[in-house]
Every structure is written in structure tokens, then in C-alpha cells.
Amino acid sequence: MAARSSGESGKDVRPSKPASKTAPKSASKPASKPVAKPSPKAAPSGARPSQSTGRFWTRGVQYGLVAALLLAPALALVLQAVRAPEEPPMVESQIRPRTLAPLIAGAIASPQAIGLEFSSEEINEHVGQTLQTLRKGNPTFPFQRLRLRTEPERCHVLAVYRMKIWNTDVDFHFRMTYFVAVQDGKLKTRPFSAQLGRISLGAFGIRKVEEEWLRRLLTPFKRELILLNRLETLRLEPTRAILKVRPSSSTGAPL
Q1: pTM for this structure?
Q2: DSSP code of 212?
């Protein structure tokens, strides 16, 4: 008995594995389905990154800046063109202006030299009344009004024309400055400055404004041109014009 016990003690005694307990099929968990990853095409637009939106906004700002840089000078030029030039206020006379047409006709027919003195207000009223016939005879002509301002050896002509821009009536102000003097019995006139609104025009602009705009306004002034061609002396002042006309037998050189 002792020998068996010693022999049995020499063998490795391994613990037996516990019996595996298998759970019933009814208690087993259902197999979980794999979760599908959302594709970028199926994602809503709001869930996308804002890179495209930021890029579009940046391009819009760039295009807006370029358009502003290109249009700002043109817009500023138009605004300067439609603004009236700076003019000193006209001095209004307390004396009622006379009608100059009979005085001009009498000076032309006078057999003797005659002196005349016209105020600036009388001259401008006579010019305005005479040009009304031009506007009535040609309704499409865009001329609106004209005013003269005199100073020694200078005459400033301010003409206003109305044109349609984008179905809107816009007034354009032209100002031409002339050198005026009687030399050797002849009236000399020479334009040396012109403006469109607040924009100064060069030599080409002066010629175009005079030929295409101001010269057309001389059509109804036939008797006035005869009187100017017979001037013997002329003195211009800020508020009046003083002139001496040769007798009717004299002839003058054309302007």
C-alpha cells in the first residue's frame, strides 16, 4: 500500500477542465450588422465643409473690388461733368431791364455814330428771349438756356444742354471763355478756355464745343451780328457793356 501510494505520488496530477457550459440557442445575442459609413455624395449639402462657400465669397469680393476700381473713375467723371461750374453770383440790378431789340435796330439804322450801354441783366434777358425761337423751331435740340458774364476783355458763355441718360434727363453745363476786344476797327474773339461741368477741356474739346454746340446758337442773332461788326469801341465790365457803333454807311468785317 505504501509502494502504490509512492508510485502514484510520482505521476503528474493535472486538474481536470471544467465542463463547458453551452448556453441555449434561444438566449444567444443576434449578430450585429456592420454599420455602413456615409458616403460623401449622400451627405447633405449643409454637412459639407465650407471650403466651396468660402472660395465663392472670396471670388465675389475680388470681382467686386475690380469692378469698383474700374467703375469708380468713370462714375466720378460723370458726376464732375454734370455739376455746374463754379460761378460768382450775378449782381441783380434794381432797374427794370429794357427791351434791347428796338435799341439794336435803331443803332443799326442810325446815320451817325451812337453810343450804347447795356447791363448784364439786359443782355442775358435779350439772349434768353431770342434763343426761345431756336428751341421752338427745333424741339429735339437739347439746348436749355444760356447766360453771359462779362469782365474786362473777357466774356464767359455758360450754356446748359439737357440729354437723356438711362431714361433720365441730365443737364450738362458747358462754359467757354472768350477773349473779346475791338482792334483796328474789327471785333476780335478767341476762345481760350472751356469746361464741361467741373472738367477742363483741352484744345480739341474747345474746338468741338464751339463748332458743334455754341456756333449753332448764333443762328437767330442776325441783327446782333450786324451791330457787332460795326463796333468802333467796346468796353466790358463785370456788370455792363459799353460800346460805340459806327454809322449805318460804314461796313464792318465779318466775325
Answers
A1: 0.66
A2: I
